[in-house]
Every structure is written in C-alpha cells, then in structure tokens.
UniProtKB/TrEMBL annotation:
Protein name per UniProt: Uncharacterized protein
Superkingdom of the organism of origin: Bacteria
Source taxonomy: Bacteria, Pseudomonadati, Pseudomonadota, Gammaproteobacteria, Lysobacterales
Provenance organism: Dyella solisilvae
Length: 112
C-alpha cells in the first residue's frame, strides 16, 4: 500500500512539474468551479480524487482505483479571479476533459 501511495504522489508531482495542458481564468468561486468539474468528469468511467487544500482544490483523474493520476486540475483563487490549471499525462485524446474545465470556468458565476 505504501508503494501505491508513493507512486500516486510521484505521478502527481511529475504532472505538476510538467507544462500545463491548459489554464483558464474566471470569476466563479473555487468551490463552485470544482463542483462543476467533478460533476462533468464524474460522468466518465474514471476514478476521481478531490483534495481541499489551503490554496484551493485539486481534482485528480485515475484510470483505475489504485492507478496513478493521469491528469489533474488545480483550482485556486488568484486576486479577484479563480484560475484552473489542467495537467495531463493521458495516453489518449483528453481534449474533452480540459474543454470541460474551460466550460466550468466560463459558466460558473460569482456569488452575488
């Protein structure tokens, strides 16, 4: 189990150390954008892991329950905006995933 956890950490670390696939900026809250992305991605046959962090929320995509992360999005407040940065190591076309990140960032409205 420790090896699995370490593999997960190293895959996430290597994803974050790579060039982001896409980054989007919007005015919705971190929580609302994360909820939108989780709902969209959850419609696919992948395993999602979400982490609430001091700096925002991260959502990871794993192809299997115990497999390494193949993509993730970090959603963080930056000044008066919210930035969602998508990193990927998919071995297939994952454009739907980052297009859903863009859709969620663009359509999630700020709280009045």
């Amino acid at each position: 189990m420790v090896a699995t956890l370490m593999a997960g950490c190293s895959s996430v670390g290597s994803l974050r150390n790579s060039k982001p696939t896409a980054a989007y900026e919007g005015s919705g809250s971190v929580g609302d954008i994360a909820s939108c992305i989780s709902g969209a991605w959850g419609s696919k046959p992948v395993h999602l892991v979400s982490y609430q962090e001091y700096t925002g929320t991260s959502i990871e995509i794993h192809q299997t329950e115990d497999g390494p992360a193949v993509a993730l999005v970090d959603i963080k407040p930056v000044s008066a905006r919210t930035v969602a940065t998508y990193y990927s190591n998919f071995d297939e076309d994952d454009s739907w995933y980052f297009q859903e990140v863009e859709r969620c960032v663009d359509t999630t409205l700020p709280h009045e």
